[in-house]
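Students often ask why we bother encoding 3D structure as a string. The short answer is that it lets us treat folding as translation between two languages. Here is a chain of 371 residues written in the first language.
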Amino acid sequence: MVVFEKEDGLALHQSGRNSGVIHSGIYYAPGSAKARFCVAGARAMIEYCDERGIPYSRIGKLIVASKEEELEALDELQRRGAANGVAGVARLDQASIRSYEPHVHGIAALHVPSTAIVDFRAVTSALAADLARAGAEVRLRSKVVALRTNSTHVAVTTSVETIECGQLIACAGIGSDAIARQIGGSDAVRIVPFRGDYYRLAPERRDLVRGLIYPVPDPRFPFLGVHFTPRINGDVWLGPNAVLAFGTEAYRRSDVDLAETLGFVGYAGFWKMARRFWRTGIAEIMRDYSKRLFLAALRRYVPELRLSDLLPGPSGIRAQAIGADGNLVDDFWYEALPRVLVVRNAPSPAATASLELAREIVDRALAPVSI
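And here it is in the second language, the structure alphabet:
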């Protein structure tokens, strides 16, 4: 087995730039693929970290309602947690919130003790070492530039070489569209990049946050809103926002890839989505450019935060699949083509669920497909 990686290292994009949270599964509709894979995947990830000696911490999470209108959604999350088998979820009143997070303001919350944090770059390195011990090869600096399929094999041309194989699995993240289009894949969805920017909490103010602190999410979006995320190295990340990125690797506001931008801006589904959510999009852009507005969103939950507490932080790109109807695709989606399985959408909680997803992906890849 050969794994191609276009970069000179592993987990340099979505896998290494995510929040580092091992999610519990409380958010997802009971019976959905996300619910099933997240709950089982979190269990498998913790077991894997124990086996490989990878540091993690079950610091728990508070999902905080700051206003009356959010209580119904909080009730629904509690119901989903119970239905999905998320252990230990507790409803908190205002006084109880302070017992977990003394600096947090809210009228009610859910405490989810099973939520954990880990460095997914460390997880990726351990998986690569496992592959090497099993006889597989990871080839870095090998960008896939062309694919050709026929009845007997797949020809994979990279920036270095061309090889032939009997079966190919394409897990290209934000590049999955480009891979699929080369071999006749569906145009039912397109990937649109959204950038998420974080601030870092000043080290001397880390006592304001004990565990993960999240808002009640807007059910219309797959994004979870700005939150407080302690990291396994001791940092605390604040954010992210969710703004349109002008390129698949446009990690800075000034980064623009015109060809890539024209590719998704010319997609009818993008404009249907934009017309539906333009107010939310403008609010996200304003907060992205205004540190004071970003602070205001955070102070809904931790009022003691000051502008000077927010230090420059990292950014990531979320590969968001959008349907031709303008809807945000919120579940895992795979496309089986002759001798090729393309993972077309693997949103959060894909990192949490990755070990369970791997089994599903391999099973699908090995399933017979008519040519």
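Translate back mentally: DSSP finds ten helices and 20 strands in the chain. Keep this in mind for the problem set.
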